[in-house]
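Tutorial sheet, problem 5. The two components below are modelled jointly, 639 residues in total.
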Amino acid sequence: MEIKRNVLVVDDSLDTRNAIKSILTNEGYYVKDTGNPDEVITIATSFEPRIIILDVMMPHAKGLDLLKSLNVSSRNTEVIMMSAEEDVQIIHNAVNLGARGFLNKPVRYGELISQVSLSLDRIIEREKTENYQKLLEELVNARTKEISRALEIAEFQSRQIDLILNSMSEPLVTVDMDGLIIILNKAAEQVLGLKPECLGSPFRRCIHSPRLNQSLLKTITHFKNGLNDDHDLTLSSVPAKIQNTFFSVSINILKNSIDKPSGCVLTFQDQTEIFRAAQLRSGFLSLVAHEFRTPLASILNSASIFHETDIDKAFSAEAAQIILESTSRLKKLIDHLITFSNIQRADIKADHLCVNTRDFFDVILLRCSESSNKKHIQINVKNVNVPESIYTDPVLLGDTLESFIDNAIKFSPPDSEVEITAKLMEKINSDKSLSISILDRGPGIPAEQQSQMFEWFWQSENSLTRSYNGLGIGLPLALRAIEILGGTLNYAQYPLGGSIFTINVPVTIP
Amino acid sequence: MQQWKILIIDDEDLLIKSMRLSLNYKGFDTLGARDGIKGLELADSFHPDIILLDIMMPGIDGWEILKRLKGSSGTSRIPVVIFTAREYSNGTALAREKGAVDMITKPVDPRLLASTLLKILEQNNRMEG
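Model answer (structure tokens):
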């Protein structure tokens, strides 16, 4: 390490200064000198001497005072005191103030060189130690910073992972190679009903799904046997029913940093809706098939008699009538299915036209007349104050009304009446709506079933023994149509037996 | 040739009419019942040789009617064929388990139906005879 060999000599005697200067310069030191104690601080500041040789007995300011104001201990500077007398008190004081060397006056060559070089050695030594300490400190600081940063990152990551795991709506469970639960997210606690105590417990004791446990065991055994190379990491999903929910569980292998399997991650996807939809779909399809088969059977039976050579005219007329009726039933079924598929589109909008109300009701009654005549059911329309023309969607409203009237006829006992009451309602803000209620004298819908009746495919009795034909889509279809018209639907049981459906749709009057 | 008597129990009016039409042409004597209770009455009074029974009917369903037919001494020996529009995955086995002879899914070609019924009737006749 290169060190500046600056020496400042402070003495009131020019001779002494010159003598010291010449000796030290000769020895390779860079020397400045002054006889004026007032200059010492200024020179010391700019010259930065490593060693100051100071006469303690100067006339104007005492060397000791100067020593005090130099504050040598704070900088790596050595002060060598000079004095003609060996005053113990002065030496003691000087040492207390940070002086490290002492020269007797007159200064001898050897003593000066050795004192200065000792001081320089001490400076170098201190500098070394200091530097080493600084270096060490820096190293320690750097390491500490690194560690604390790493800790911060780890903590941050662990918090983030927790957040991510807990924000997942799908339950996630991780087990180790012994099948013990090691990680649970919030959803697993809530949806699967796993308690935090389950951590560390065997998975099979916490989740009661024999099929899933078997698959998990198989997976773990598979990887324990070291068969991981040929095995696809994502196993096919396992269906599992847990707490009345249908899940599709995917089991993924968890590998550690050296690529060894260390456990399994199980993610649970709720498939209840899909499962239910599939059940509904298959139920609906078999219902549709059933509804198609019955009229088809009638057509087939009736058509078969035309094979015979001697057909009675009355029989052939009856067969033709059956075929006609059955085909019209099939047509109605197809219309229903088309409406069903159309009305479920989200973008469907009402198409308002100016409608003549008398014609409108007449057409609907005509459409229902076949079934009403058959059961000798009288349909009475009571028009309270409906104007001659209104703006509404005649197709949506007409189909809806027809399906309610059809329903009413279907559930009415023979020779009874169905009453339709149409009223124009006016709100305070002069918005107008058309209220149409349909009353039948059928069995009515029991209170406990009223909440389900607008569900798709619902039937008033279970579909195996149901009393009435139909796909179970009439009511929800009608409700959807009324929604599209911006209206409401109400149901009430008629006190004397029967049902009252009331439709209320906004209309404008031309 | 013997004229076999067939009782058709089905809630579908059109189906009964059309069945009677086609089976009459095949030489059967037919009678229809629109519901199970009516069907049980006719099974007692009409003494059919065979019964075609629908499953999905209002009130009492076909399975229950079958049980009652089989449980009554007057009707227990009459062979019953389940005639349904519903698809069962193992219909014949299910029908036999419950005491019927067979299950036929609607619609069926009336010629095929007639020959199936004849086969059952003749077999039954031989066993009874």
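Marking note: The first strand of chain A starts at residue 6 and ends at 10. Full credit if you identified this.
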